[in-house]
Amino acid sequence: MIVLDVETTGLVPERHSILSLGALDLNDPTNQFYEECQVWNGAEIEDEALAINGFEREEVKEQGSKKQTEEGLIKAFVAWAMDRPKERTLAAQNVSFDLEFVQAACKRAGIECPFAKRTIDVHSITWMHMVTRGIEPPTKNGHSAINLDAALAYCGVPGEPKPHNALTGAYCHAEVISRIAYNRNLLPDFSTFDIPWETNR
Question: Fewer CB atoms inside 10 Å of the end CB: C or N, the chain?
Answer without folding.
Answer: C
